Amino acid sequence: MVATGNVIAQSLTLWSERVFPVADLDSTVVDHKVPSSSYDPLQTLRFFAYGVAFSPVSYRWHAFLNARFPLGNIVAGSSKQIAAPPSKMPLSHSTRAVLKRLVVDQTLFAPIATFSFVGGMGVMEGLGPIELAERFRIQYLAVLMAGYALWPAAQLINFSIVPLAYRVPFSSVVGLMWHTYLSWTSARIEAKGAPSEIEQADALGPVVPATN
């Protein structure tokens, strides 16, 4: 799913450059056929490697939340019902458990996951300490805030009605959109080069989509 999100993002980038080409500042000629960038398989490979490395961590985290804040319906990844199914439990108990899971997930795991993405992708790109610090300065908070706009609602559904064994796949489906966004932001940073150039481009206006 992580790699697929990157493929989608790169494909949208190439498509947007064909449909909405940008003329050179020193020329009035606009090329409608040849995009300025090309598909980068190494970028997709980096996203694939990140997904392979981080998915087990994500699953263990969901298992921890399931054990720490039980809803009383699923036994550790199986489909067995225990004595008190959710329909028999007080609504307040289930609601509190779901909200606790959501709060803990978004306050503890979300910042760590964002840190892992920005740092992991930066390391795989071969960034040095100074470049990596600049990448965090530019990308970390933006990615974290974007995540808060998507994941609380998705995880509310995930924690309340999805069995433990299917929570990571459910998150991966939602993550298809999420990783498409991460790929867009990462590729935009890579394409623009130095952080100062990115900030100057942002000051001048929006950039044709190119992305964590």
TrEMBL record:
Lipid bilayer topology: Multi-pass membrane protein
A Pfam family matched in the record: Mpv17_PMP22
Top-rank lineage group of the source organism: Eukaryota
InterPro entries: Mpv17_PMP22
Keywords: Membrane, Transmembrane, Transmembrane helix
Principal localisation: membrane
Record keyword Membrane present: yes
Keyword Heme: no
TM spans (from-to): 108-128, 140-158
GO cellular component assignments: membrane; mitochondrion
Compartment list: Membrane
Record-stated family: Belongs to the peroxisomal membrane protein PXMP2/4 family.
PANTHER family: PEROXISOMAL MEMBRANE PROTEIN 2, PXMP2 MPV17, VACUOLAR MEMBRANE PROTEIN YOR292C
Name used for this protein in its record: Uncharacterized protein
Organism: Coemansia spiralis
Lineage of producing organism: Eukaryota, Fungi, Fungi incertae sedis, Zoopagomycota, Kickxellomycotina
